[in-house]
Specification:
Length: 362
């Protein structure tokens, strides 16, 4: 297939890896922000081709993983309401809340449905006027435009039985939080190509300059990732800290402006809790006041939530680049994809799931 096989060419990837080995002279720690990149790295064994001096750590760019436990518990509470059809991306159904998950709500008779987009949920609301239809609007900048569009669409249709449980997160504030931490180890970033497709990369310049870290916009195929790493290593070795675009076939500096306008029309910044990490200022989006009638937390009377995370789960430290999945005492033992204790073992973008599926026990 054109534009896929070329980027999986083993000889080209090896040539870039050889170049990384040639240019690196000191140990460096680089974080790939997106969980999709983590899975590519593990799936294609890219980490095993890198020189020993280079350590890749796995960032918080897995939306399922960072959706706060409190928000999962709110989803469970809303989904158990009589007369509710709760709709969600499939990954979210197995994410453990304090007590159970959305699958267990469905097993107990709740109407929990998997959809591919929030617009599917709008359609379900049209077809079920006697039910309240809620969409679990999680995700980064990538899913926000479609979720914003679903609100506009529902408004235009005059729907009064559609709402969003919004838990959007944004990448740049998370990078700030990681770099501000006294325990930070990250010296360079591979920025998430799909997020930059929507948002461009104009937001990253101030981060690169303030913290003196190179940021390289990177795609998801093996060659994309290898080239992203090479660009970051070259900058680290040269002492520069610029924003580079190694995914130019998809990403532009300004990004998708209509999508950004759609986001800005419907959402506004808010403080957001990240699972295992805590509250990061201005790191989320919430519905603007004029769209609050589509806010599920306003529509349903949710009792006070007291989230209780498994004390064994160190996912928050993994997502900040401080630990690896195999540092967790219950990895592949008490915690498996079939019986996850934390969200990073569930998601198709979760670091623990990547280590589990592609076998990096030590
Ligand atoms: S292996 Fe399971 S319990 Fe351990 S950090 Fe990963 S998700 Fe959490």
């Amino acid at each position: 297939m054109k534009y896929i096989s070329e980027y999986r060419d083993a000889h080209l990837v090896q040539a870039v890896m050889d170049e990384i080995t040639r240019v690196i002279h000191r140990p460096w720690v680089i974080m790939e922000i997106c969980g999709g990149q983590t899975h590519s790295i593990m799936k294609y064994g890219l980490d095993q081709l890198l020189p020993e001096d280079l350590e890749l750590v796995h960032g918080p760019g897995c939306p399922v993983c960072v959706t706060s436990l409190e928000m999962i518990d709110k989803a469970l509470a809303i989904a158990t309401h009589p007369g509710v059809i709760f709709t969600s991306y499939g990954d979210m159904l197995r994410v453990p809340g304090s007590e159970g998950d959305l699958f267990s709500v469905r097993a107990s008779g709740g109407d929990v449905r998997v959809v591919y987009s929030s617009l599917d949920a709008v359609k379900i609301a049209q077809e079920n006027p006697s039910k309240q239809v809620v969409f679990f609007a999680i995700g980064f900048e990538t899913t926000a435009p479609a979720n914003a569009m679903s609100v506009i669409h529902a408004q235009n249709l005059g729907l009064e039985n559609f709402s969003l449980l919004v838990s959007h997160v944004r990448v740049p504030p998370a990078m700030h939080a990681i770099l501000e931490s006294s325990t930070n180890r990250v010296q360079g970033f591979l920025a998430a190509g799909h997020v930059c497709t929507v948002m461009g990369y104009w937001e990253y310049g101030p981060i690169a300059q303030k913290y003196k870290v190179p940021v390289v916009v990177t795609g998801f195929e093996p060659l994309d990732i290898a080239q992203g790493i090479l660009s970051a290593v070259k900058q680290l070795e040269n002492g520069t800290h610029e924003v580079e675009n190694a995914y130019a076939r998809v990403v532009s500096y300004e990004g998708n402006q209509p999508a950004q306008r759609m986001i800005n029309q419907v959402f506004e910044d808010c403080n957001q809790k990240w699972r295992g990490i805590g509250l990061i200022p201005s790191s989320g989006w919430q519905l603007k006041h004029e769209f609050r009638q589509f806010d599920a937390t306003q529509r349903f009377n949710i009792q006070k939530i007291t989230p209780a995370e498994s004390p064994l789960c160190i996912a928050g430290q993994i997502l900040q680049g401080l630990k690896k999945p195999y540092d967790c005492s219950v990895f592949a033992g008490q915690c498996t994809p079939e019986h996850p204790l934390g969200a990073t073992m569930v998601s198709s973008e979760g670091a623990c799931a990547a280590y589990y599926h592609y076998g990096r026990p030590t």
